[in-house]
């Protein structure tokens, strides 16, 4: 169920240190397959926001499976590497996606 997946992902991302991010970044995650749904992650004014909504004015849209997004949220999978090996599809500003590391 997407709500449960979102709660897990949000819990992992909420612990992320974003103090080094000196710019506004926003990503929309589109989860396909089992537990599919959409949520966004935004770093604004030094704070991280993760909400279960679409984000129209995003820097990048990341489409992936529930398994891959959990691994990204846990810090086990680099999103750029995942894109390069075909685990995620990223459309948008790749330099801003690198902030997720």
How does this structure look, described?
The protein has 101 residues and is an alpha+beta fold. 32% of the residues lie in helices and 32% in strands. The chain is built from four helices and five strands, in the order H-E-E-E-E-H-H-E-H. A five-stranded mixed β-sheet has the order 3-2-1-4-5. A hairpin with a 4-residue loop joins strand 1 (25-32) and strand 2. The mean pLDDT is 92.
Derived from helix and strand composition plus strand pairing, the structural class reads alpha+beta
* Total beta-strand segments: 5
Low-confidence stretches: none
Shape estimate: globular
Rg, Å, rounded: 12 Å
Query: What is the H-and-E element order?
Result: HEEEEHHEH
- β-sheet strand percentage: 25-35%
Total helical elements: 4
What is the CA-CA span between the terminal residues?
26 Å
Order of strands across the main sheet: 3-2-1-4-5
Nearest-integer average pLDDT: 92
Largest β-sheet summary: 5 strands, mixed
Oligomer: single chain
Helix content: 25-40%
What is this structure, in a nutshell?
The chain is an alpha+beta fold and 101 residues long.
Features:
101 residues, alpha+beta, 5-stranded mixed sheet, 32% helix, globular
């Amino acid at each position: 169920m997407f709500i449960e997946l979102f709660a897990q992902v949000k819990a992992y991302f909420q612990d992320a240190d974003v103090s080094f991010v000196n710019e506004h970044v926003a990503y929309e995650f589109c989860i396909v397959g089992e537990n599919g749904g959409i949520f966004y992650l935004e770093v604004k004014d030094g704070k991280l926001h993760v909400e279960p909504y679409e984000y129209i004015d995003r820097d990048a849209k990341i489409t992936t499976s529930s398994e891959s997004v959990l691994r990204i949220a846990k810090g086990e999978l680099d999103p750029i590497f995942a894109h390069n090996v075909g685990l995620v599809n990223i459309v948008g500003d790749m330099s801003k996606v690198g902030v997720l590391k």
